[in-house]
């Protein structure tokens, strides 16, 4: 068993209303100095040892992310 | 005139889409997500709702349903396909239409009666309208913001493939106020607002939406 | 306090051998005499599982122990004539009325106040989910929801935390189920500041012959648990039974969550699955799993049936590892149902569940005799007479006392206020128009889908919601919920009647004929005699009002302990009235001025 | 300017319908060997250098995460 993390983020040129809402709210809550916030998704997968990197890349690209609007990063982490 | 209406787990507006087809004089045929079969229909509607709970991304899981493989194949051969709301999202995820739909800019689900301008009345689904006409139909969605890169937007605008545009106050942050678009051949149309909820002034704000279903019946009868 | 040691499970055999073992009944909310009664019923000390089951089922929420003696007044005042159209009433999951043309309509309101304060989105969402399952369990297709809400002052900081979450939760769950929201209330008052009210109402319809009641009968029939897996949701209270030395693979188990997370998608699929099962006529009895989970479902099904029941608890599909029998029985995991099925229909039942990808497990059977027996890997962990759990819980006659300040409150009448002059009057009108209680509720209502499924004839901004039940005949129903807590504080008897009268008028003016009433009675602590007086008065007022109008109360819900510190909320008996209209095209929309030249008439004094 | 990442995940004992839906879909898409999926949120923040760790921890706890049902991790990353 391996643990795999996939982070999916809106592409920089795509409007990110959620991240923007967070960025706008922070000063109102008294937190200054945060200039940009972007919000995406974080997936944690438990995968069998025979699942290779190419398969993981494919899962991320065809399913977990929508390449039209999102970028993604796949990484294996220590269990 | 047989029109297929797909039901995925979590589909909600299938009954409404079927009713709209009947009001327009067609026969509604239910299609099940797990079937590899379009039952010989002349056109397909992918209705609204929350297929697979809209988990992951709206439409992302439904796109892989067996019936969708058939829809993609049929659409590529010219079958008229209409995606409403979640159906529009599914058609984008399935790459039958370009772009994507993201969270409303104000982050809330919005249900309201929405004015739309008809920008293209030459698709299989819009011939009953006058170009430039304004229609009032319900909009109800949480992720209705239409997004695409600049090149795609230029292409859509340049080829006249924007079918509907929001009129008045922007409801969800869509680029160029886009409410609905069509494929290059004008056969596949997707839109966020709900024409199937505007077929009778008893249960909707107007009957302005009926024109889409009547247009389809016309186009199939003509063909 | 620890009952278990290691991973051993407390069995009936063990309980018999260790009669003097100390048990944390107090932490579980049981009083000394209640614990003594359980021992008396069983003739021994209860096992952990039994203690868990009795404690949740004998809680105020499940047993109505403080309200029962008062609620009886509803039945006492319901005449046969009022009962004529009632197919199911108080005591069933939800009331059912015959609306003609072979249609039956079921509706009920429920509160989810405290969970919505702790976690507004999920609390409100699971509140909607729960009431929808109640309606489904009657055999009906759920058709619409409503949400009477109460918040602290609109500008209070906590309201800004609570309100958006609750509204998003009601919308998030209801919208995803495809249930139009056809009305509700949004009221602000300081007494709700630490205790918002989230009441949810659901209405559904079925053909009269499809009515299902919750009972387990027919020896040999199978008990099927279906829907979501069972996890550690909402068992915070029962966690005192978990052994301190309990060892999960990840080490010691953390404090258990008392929050449940809803999965509306699973519920939507469960609804369609159930409706298909009903259509195939392969369900003998059915019960939803709500508060008190399996403990409630098994004991209620068994006590309503004509035999006993045996449940193999280790068969329950779990979401967490290492759950104990007590935890499994009291888990409040959402989106689950329990059905009784004849053995010959089992395959057909499983096939429908498979079609909808719904997990279904045969967990037991109806037996001879009259005991509910639950085993864990063949060891008996619970063996009780089910009625003693579900229906024969404690009954309290709480002290009642008219509050000391009631006279002064009532004497402080409006004629002691100065009359505003001309200019002041204008200001007053502006102030009122801008006040949160009177301002537009669009910010809330536009987050709710009111169109889905195409049957909504009236919704906001109408005084009542109306849906079409039958597309061919256009028969439909109208619903309104109302309550003015300030009036009720001034005079609980009259206040409850005013709530009834307002809901009744709203339904009548939409063009429908009122036929039945439900309620959701939100009050402070029943241990406060002043609150109990308010409660008693409100019940009397409502029941007498219903008798006067000739329409029965078919069900309801009581929510006590709505208070912050010693301060109770305004007494808030929310009343829902259901009306019938034979052709929804004859509806009367709210509002004037659709056409020039309309005549305005004032009716009444 | 520093870049800060906050990952917010549903607590292990809390139902995660989204992750579950993803996990259920994978085998249907032909991807086997993924036993568990949990889905959370991933925030990327650009913060001024004078924003200290305590402030970041507070932002995560009081605003980005809902401590009733979620766990979270804050980390500074290379820009
Ligand atoms: N929480 C709510 N959910 C759904 N509808 C609501 C809610 N609150 C108010 N409404 C609807 O908004 C409309 C206006 O409400 P309100 O301003 O309270 O009017 P009224 O005082 O006449 O009841 C009504 O149709 C009511 O049903």
UniProtKB/TrEMBL annotation, chains A, D:
<keyword id="KW-0436">Ligase</keyword>
<comment type="similarity">
    <text>Belongs to the PurS family.</text>
</comment>
<comment type="subunit">
    <text>Part of the FGAM synthase complex composed of 1 PurL, 1 PurQ and 2 PurS subunits.</text>
</comment>
<comment type="pathway">
    <text>Purine metabolism; IMP biosynthesis via de novo pathway; 5-amino-1-(5-phospho-D-ribosyl)imidazole from N(2)-formyl-N(1)-(5-phospho-D-ribosyl)glycinamide: step 1/2.</text>
</comment>
<dbReference type="InterPro" id="IPR003850">
    <property type="entry name" value="PurS"/>
</dbReference>
<comment type="function">
    <text>Part of the phosphoribosylformylglycinamidine synthase complex involved in the purines biosynthetic pathway. Catalyzes the ATP-dependent conversion of formylglycinamide ribonucleotide (FGAR) and glutamine to yield formylglycinamidine ribonucleotide (FGAM) and glutamate. The FGAM synthase complex is composed of three subunits. PurQ produces an ammonia molecule by converting glutamine to glutamate. PurL transfers the ammonia molecule to FGAR to form FGAM in an ATP-dependent manner.</text>
</comment>
<keyword id="KW-0067">ATP-binding</keyword>
<dbReference type="Pfam" id="PF02700">
    <property type="entry name" value="PurS"/>
</dbReference>
<dbReference type="GO" id="GO:0004642">
    <property type="term" value="F:phosphoribosylformylglycinamidine synthase activity"/>
</dbReference>
<keyword id="KW-0658">Purine biosynthesis</keyword>
<dbReference type="InterPro" id="IPR036604">
    <property type="entry name" value="PurS-like_sf"/>
</dbReference>
<keyword id="KW-0963">Cytoplasm</keyword>
<keyword id="KW-0547">Nucleotide-binding</keyword>
<protein>
    <recommendedName>
        <fullName>Phosphoribosylformylglycinamidine synthase subunit PurS</fullName>
        <ecNumber>6.3.5.3</ecNumber>
    </recommendedName>
</protein>
From TrEMBL, chain B:
<keyword id="KW-0658">Purine biosynthesis</keyword>
<dbReference type="GO" id="GO:0004642">
    <property type="term" value="F:phosphoribosylformylglycinamidine synthase activity"/>
</dbReference>
<dbReference type="InterPro" id="IPR010075">
    <property type="entry name" value="PRibForGlyAmidine_synth_PurQ"/>
</dbReference>
<feature type="active site">
    <location>
        <position position="194"/>
    </location>
</feature>
<keyword id="KW-0067">ATP-binding</keyword>
<dbReference type="GO" id="GO:0004359">
    <property type="term" value="F:glutaminase activity"/>
</dbReference>
<feature type="active site">
    <location>
        <position position="196"/>
    </location>
</feature>
<keyword id="KW-0378">Hydrolase</keyword>
<feature type="active site" description="Nucleophile">
    <location>
        <position position="85"/>
    </location>
</feature>
<keyword id="KW-0315">Glutamine amidotransferase</keyword>
<comment type="function">
    <text>Part of the phosphoribosylformylglycinamidine synthase complex involved in the purines biosynthetic pathway. Catalyzes the ATP-dependent conversion of formylglycinamide ribonucleotide (FGAR) and glutamine to yield formylglycinamidine ribonucleotide (FGAM) and glutamate. The FGAM synthase complex is composed of three subunits. PurQ produces an ammonia molecule by converting glutamine to glutamate. PurL transfers the ammonia molecule to FGAR to form FGAM in an ATP-dependent manner.</text>
</comment>
<keyword id="KW-0963">Cytoplasm</keyword>
<protein>
    <recommendedName>
        <fullName>Phosphoribosylformylglycinamidine synthase subunit PurQ</fullName>
        <ecNumber>6.3.5.3</ecNumber>
        <ecNumber>3.5.1.2</ecNumber>
    </recommendedName>
</protein>
<comment type="pathway">
    <text>Purine metabolism; IMP biosynthesis via de novo pathway; 5-amino-1-(5-phospho-D-ribosyl)imidazole from N(2)-formyl-N(1)-(5-phospho-D-ribosyl)glycinamide: step 1/2.</text>
</comment>
<comment type="subunit">
    <text>Part of the FGAM synthase complex composed of 1 PurL, 1 PurQ and 2 PurS subunits.</text>
</comment>
<dbReference type="InterPro" id="IPR029062">
    <property type="entry name" value="Class_I_gatase-like"/>
</dbReference>
<dbReference type="Pfam" id="PF13507">
    <property type="entry name" value="GATase_5"/>
</dbReference>
<keyword id="KW-0547">Nucleotide-binding</keyword>
<keyword id="KW-0436">Ligase</keyword>
